[in-house]
Design brief:
The complex is a heterotrimer of chains A (249), B (333) and C (286).
Chain A lengths: L3 E12 L2 E12 L3 E5 L6 H9 L6 E6 L2 E2 L5 H7 L1 E3 L12 H9 L6 H14 L15 H13 L5 E5 L7 H16 L3 E5 L3 H7 L2 E6 L2 E6 L1 H6 L1 H20 L1
Parallel strand pairs in A: 3-8, 3-9, 6-7, 7-8
Antiparallel strand pairs in A: 1-2, 1-4, 4-5, 9-10
Helix pairs in contact in A: 3-4, 3-5, 4-5
Chain B lengths: L1 H20 L5 H27 L8 H18 L7 H19 L4 H20 L10 E2 L16 H22 L2 H11 L1 H6 L4 H27 L1 E2 L1 H5 L1 H14 L6 H20 L7 H15 L3 H10 L8 H9 L1
Antiparallel strand pairs in B: 1-2
Helix pairs in contact in B: 2-6, 2-9, 2-11, 2-12, 3-4, 3-9, 4-9, 6-9, 7-9, 11-12, 11-13
Chain C lengths: L1 H30 L6 H17 L7 H24 L4 H23 L14 E4 L2 E4 H23 L1 H11 L1 H6 L4 H26 L6 H16 L4 H21 L5 H15 L11
Antiparallel strand pairs in C: 1-2
Classes of the chains: A alpha/beta (249), B mainly alpha (333), C mainly alpha (286).
Chain lengths: 249, 333, 286
């Protein structure tokens, strides 16, 4: 049965008076794929970064596998089994793909030889094995996103947070990426993904949490959420606002 | 592999250099330059660990070099001990100062560390310049004549040359071992992207601190070796900014973050500096440091990886961007 | 009485510190770049004043002349080196301005030699006797002018359209671009402004204090302490901190001895890093 892996309660975050996130709640069970959606600036990135440990919430609590991780550093998050990717891929440019992934492997393996073998395996999973000896800077965006996934996978996480991992990919690349996510999920990894591409959410997510103006406005299956009038209004309203703003300038 | 042969050839040449030089008319001069090259290389290699590999740019490494020089000569002037006996004190003190600088600054963005190294270097230089026990502005000296072998005082530069060579070899071996270990990977990850490194569980602050302490310790050794050879140190020659500059430019020219870069930098710069000083006159008002400033700027602007990077690019022209489609072809196959 | 004397001269010098530190913190806030050559910009301002006297020009030309010369230098340095180096690793960024500092400093040593100089006597020389204190007229002028200019700079940045465009780039580069602001142009201007304010501070100091090419190194460190104490990117913070450091220096010189005044300031720097790295008005230093 499903055990509760992640529990976020009342997570709020303000920046100098501006409330970016207000009272967000989410419970994620082991083995789930949860999607976070919402217009830009809706607070999903803020929530994402709070869960990842990059930001400390102003209020609220986050528990992972029973441990209170609310104020823990990103390093500690990784050690506990929470991994994340970055919206703009942050590869170690001057290091080879293999070396990049080895940095991840080293979290669990102390010896270089073992870490190297493990990293090869991760690269193979991500379909990058043939490029192992090349420097990361030679990769294009899709390659970098894949590298990041291989690298975070190497840290042996139980939960991976994907930050718009499929943005900017061609349809073929998106299909391949979805396959990769499925492969990872089959390895017993729980996923929280932030995405703008509805197709991806519909295909992959078991559950979706919708953000708007810093609050969560809906939660449920992708189907249910996308038919929810509040959600539709949020997106349409946003588009209406943008159109209005454009004609005003 | 050509790399292996190149390295063996280099060490062989270094080993035999004083012997070969002895056949020349200016043997002593050449051997002295050789010893200076090795000494400079040690300092630069030490800086390279924290500045090159870890990417934490210290512009005040003179602190540690000066600590080494002063500590070893101070145990002689104050307690008549052989200067070598000051080595543990020198290394310990250097590591302590490193921790005092690193602990507050490594949790902040990189610039704070660099500014702090500059400020602390100047602070210590001013303190020492006014501290009579350490000779104030005049400085302190080592033994003029050896009381025994343990004083390590020689007329000829050759014994110093081989001592320096041994220390350099040890430092490079240790550095190489480190780069292949988890610590080394973590260092380079921190240099390439701290935020990403953190997200992968790298204990960034601790690693930076350890790198700085290791670097400081060996810079102190370099300072002690310098004091042994020259037999004298004052605030300018031990703690002045030009000491820091020398370490930086030597490492950066050869290739900061590469193993042999600092040594290559030393082999190029030290003889050049000797020539430049003869032509243009002494350090302070000479053109040498104008040149150094220019070289550092050019390196920063056009080739931050130094000669090592340039060499790497020459040998591996295939390092262009892989077209996206061929990647698909490969992964789809 | 002497304590009051020290306080006043400390505040006057502190005003100059405030002026040249504003430029450093502006660049730091805008581009996350610490200009290690900033102290040399101040030094060059001093020598600009000297060159003006050699050309037979009076004190009225010092500040404007320094401002124009250093503005040009700042803009050229940005366009020629800094702009490109920003895309590279941290090592390259730090070394670029560090190398520039060396280049400027040792060129000045080469051209002007290492002796301390003062500017020739002019209508600005002489001492004033105010409220029982003896204040050098030149120092009073330098301090007052510096304080005014620092304030003007703050006004420029916060009240003018140009200033808010610059601050927008500092705040959020992407957003600024979307608003039609060109970050490159703003950054060039910021570098020009930063260097110009440093140069003017130097020119003002040259009127009142002796100078040599060596002072650049000291001023760079002073500026670092001031901007750290003031807070990352905070121009008002730098202004306040400038006065504080000037005061501390003067009091340290009076109470402990002139030899140790810099030691005290650098020790305070380290203490600030340990205890309150965000400084007085900075948001967060991480």
């Amino acid at each position: 049965m499903s055990e509760v892996l992640l529990e976020a309660q009342g997570v709020s975050r303000a920046f100098l008076g501006f409330v970016a996130l207000e009272d967000a709640n989410l419970t994620v069970n082991a083995g789930e794929i949860v999607g976070l959606i919402g217009p830009n600036g809706a607070g999903k990135s803020t929530f994402f970064n709070c869960v990842a440990g990059d930001l400390a919430p102003s209020r609220g609590r986050i528990r992972f596998d029973g441990v209170d991780v609310t104020r823990l550093s990103p390093e500690q998050h990784a050690r506990l089994g929470i991994g994340r990717t970055f919206q703009v891929p942050a590869a170690f440019e001057d290091m080879t793909l293999l070396e990049n992934v080895m940095v991840g492997s080293f979290l669990r393996e102390r010896q270089a030889r073992v870490a190297r073998d493990h990293a090869h395996e991760m690269l193979r999973l991500a379909g990058l094995e043939r490029l192992a000896g090349q420097r990361a800077r030679t990769l294009g965006t899709p390659g970098r996103k894949r590298l990041e996934i291989a690298r975070v996978l190497a840290t042996g996480p139980r939960l991976i947070l994907l930050d718009e991992a499929l943005a900017g990919l061609t349809p073929i690349e998106i299909q391949q990426a979805i396959e990769l996510v499925r492969t990872i999920h089959a390895m017993n990894v729980t996923l929280i993904i932030v995405e703008h591409i509805m197709e991806v959410i519909r295909t992959l997510a078991h559950r979706v949490l919708v953000f708007n103006h810093g609050r969560t406005i809906a939660q449920g299956t992708p189907q249910a959420v996308m038919e929810d009038p509040t959600v539709v209004e949020a997106y349409l309203g946003h588009r209406r606002q943008r159109r209005r703003g454009r004609s005003a300038t | 592999m050509s790399g292996r042969w190149g390295a063996t050839g280099l060490w062989l040449a270094l080993l035999l250099f004083p012997l070969a030089a002895s056949f020349s008319g200016s043997a002593l001069f050449l051997q002295d330059i050789g010893a200076t090259v090795l000494l400079t290389a040690i300092g630069a290699c030490a800086w390279n660990v924290v500045g090159g590999y870890a990417g934490q740019v210290s512009v005040g490494h003179a602190i540690f070099f000066g600590t080494g020089a002063y500590a070893s000569l101070a145990v002689y002037t104050l307690w008549q001990l052989p200067p070598v006996a000051g080595l543990p004190l020198a290394v310990g003190l250097a590591m302590l100062i490193a921790a005092l600088i690193g602990l507050p600054t490594f949790r902040l963005q990189g610039h704070y560390f660099s500014m702090a190294t500059l400020a602390v270097a100047e602070l210590i230089r001013l303190l020492v310049s006014n501290w009579d026990m350490l000779g104030a502005a005049i400085g302190i000296q080592g033994p003029a004549t050896p009381r025994g072998w343990w004083d390590i005082v020689y007329r000829s530069p050759v014994p110093y040359y081989y001592i320096d060579l041994a220390v350099l070899a040890a430092l490079l071996a240790a550095t190489r071992r480190m780069t292949r270990s988890r610590f080394g990977f973590y260092l380079r990850a921190i240099r390439s992207g701290e935020r990403a490194a953190r997200s992968l569980g790298v204990p960034v602050r601790r690693i930076k601190l350890l790198a700085l302490m290791f670097s400081a310790g060996f810079a102190a050794v370099a300072g002690a070796l310098y004091a042994l050879k020259v037999g004298f140190v004052n605030p300018e020659s031990g703690l002045g900014i030009l000491v820091s500059v020398q370490m930086i430019i030597t490492a950066a020219l050869g290739g900061a973050g590469s193993l042999y870069g600092p040594l290559v930098g030393a082999i190029i710069l030290v003889p050049l500096q000797s020539v430049s000083n003869t032509w243009f006159g002494g350090s302070g008002s000479g053109l040498t440091y104008i040149l150094y400033g220019g070289i550092i700027m050019l390196l920063a602007r056009y080739e931050p990886g130094g000669l090592a990077e340039w060499w790497h690019r020459r040998l591996a022209p295939r390092l262009k961007r892989t077209p996206a489609e061929s990647e698909h072809v490969r992964s789809a196959a | 009485m002497i304590l009051l004397q020290a306080t006043v001269s400390g505040l006057l010098l502190g005003a100059v510190y405030a002026l040249f530190s504003c430029g450093l913190t502006l660049i730091w806030g805008m581009m996350n770049f610490i200009n290690f050559a900033h102290g040399e910009f101040v030094m060059l301002g001093m020598y600009a004043a000297l060159l003006a006297t050699w050309a037979g020009l009076g004190p009225a030309f010092f500040a404007p002349g320094a401002a124009i010369a250093l503005f040009a230098l700042g803009a050229i340095v940005y366009l020629g080196v800094i702009k490109q180096v920003m895309r590279g690793p941290m090592l390259a960024q730090i070394l670029s301005s560090f190398g520039l500092a060396l280049l400027l400093r040792y060129t000045a040593f080469f051209v002007f030699k290492s002796d301390f100089r003062t500017l020739p006597e002019s209508e600005l020389s002489g001492t004033l006797h105010l409220f029982g204190l003896y204040i050098a007229r030149a120092q009073l002028l330098a301090g007052a002018a510096a304080a005014l200019l620092a304030f003007a700079m703050h006004m420029l940045l916060t009240r003018s359209a140009l200033g808010s465009r610059m601050l927008a780039v500092a705040e959020d580069r992407q957003a600024a671009m979307l608003m039609g602001i060109r970050p490159d142009r703003m950054q060039t201007l910021a570098w020009g402004l930063s260097a110009a304010s440093a140069g003017v501070a130097g020119a003002l100091m040259a009127i009142a204090y002796p100078f040599s090419p060596a002072v650049g190194e000291t001023f760079a460190l002073t500026a670092f302490v001031v901007v750290t104490l003031g807070g990352f990117g905070s121009v008002p913070g730098a202004m306040i901190a400038g006065f504080v450091i000037g005061l501390v220096e003067a009091l340290a010189a009076y109470l402990i001895g002139p030899v140790y005044k810099d030691v005290v300031v650098y020790a305070i720097f380290v203490a600030v890093l340990w205890v309150r790295p965000q400084g007085l008005l900075g948001a967060s230093a991480r």
